[in-house]
Write a structure and sequence with these properties.
Oligomer: heterodimer
Number of helices of chain A: 0
Mean pLDDT of chain B: 92
Order of helices and strands of chain B: EEEEEEEEEEE
Radius of gyration of chain A: 13 Å
Order of helices and strands of chain A: EEEEEEEEEEE
Helix content of chain A: under 10%
Distance between the termini of chain B: 38 Å
Number of helices of chain B: 0
Largest sheet of chain A: 7 strands, mixed
Strand content of chain A: over 45%
Structural class of chain A: mainly beta
Distance between the termini of chain A: 31 Å
Helix content of chain B: under 10%
């Protein structure tokens, strides 16, 4: 158990809809990261937050947004969903923000039908 | 543009023998490298890391080698055990401070009893 909690584990929705994925980092970790893993692909970095502030941005679509709350949990909002958004979405956390390993949650499997 | 590449999608090794997983990268600004292991339905778990100032790091049965001039790193597992069967991801981070990791596409290791 990494200590990172992601909910829900599975999500099935329709095209055009909006969903919210939730992540609770390990106790004491200030950084939260979101990754997307599509079929047979590596993990693609989406966005990082550190202590409530956006720290780094990767290949995140404009239809996607995220935030980190004062209690350090984070939410990833995906809107106007398309079939191609179907993927495994991972959240990870780390104590700080530089040169350290990340601890991953077990992921949210999103299926857009 | 895939900055971290794992060109072997799969590898099969007999139990007790050595497993060698390879990874190449293109960005010379990467200064921290990690290997993660992933079992089905779980998030990636950290295995071993190496800083760019070193060329070798060892942890039990796992050793990571870094060749900066060739932009190549490898993970050696000796001896391989059936429980090592998983997908292994190579990852790298930049010197710039943000800790987002760039992942390869993974190599599926199967250790045959």
């Amino acid at each position: 158990d990494s200590g990172v909690t992601q909910t829900p584990k599975h999500l099935i929705t329709a095209t055009g809809q909006r969903v919210t994925l939730r992540c609770s980092p390990r106790s004491g970790d200030l950084s939260v990261y979101w990754y997307q893993q599509s079929l047979d692909q590596g993990l693609q970095f989406l966005i990082q937050y550190y202590n409530g502030e956006e720290r780094a941005k990767g290949n995140i679509l404009e239809r996607f947004s995220a935030q980190q709350f004062p209690d350090l949990h984070s939410e990833l909002n995906l809107s106007s969903l398309e079939l191609g958004d179907s993927a495994l979405y991972f959240c990870a956390s780390s104590p700080h923000s530089t040169n350290e390993k990340l601890f991953f949650g077990s992921g949210t499997q999103l299926s857009v039908l | 543009d895939q900055q971290v590449k794992q060109n072997s999608p799969s590898l099969s090794v007999q139990e007790g023998r050595i497993s060698i997983l390879n990874c190449d990268y293109t960005n010379s600004m990467f200064d921290y490298f990690l290997w993660y292991k992933k079992y089905p339905a779980e998030g990636p778990t950290f295995l071993i890391s190496i800083s760019s100032i070193k060329d070798k790091n060892e942890d039990g049965r796992f050793t990571v080698f870094l060749n900066k001039s060739a932009k190549h790193l490898s993970l050696h597992i000796v001896p391989s055990q059936p429980g090592d069967s998983a997908v292994y991801f190579c990852a790298a981070s930049l010197q710039t401070g943000a800790n987002n990791l760039f992942f390869g596409t993974g190599t599926r290791l199967t250790v045959i009893p």
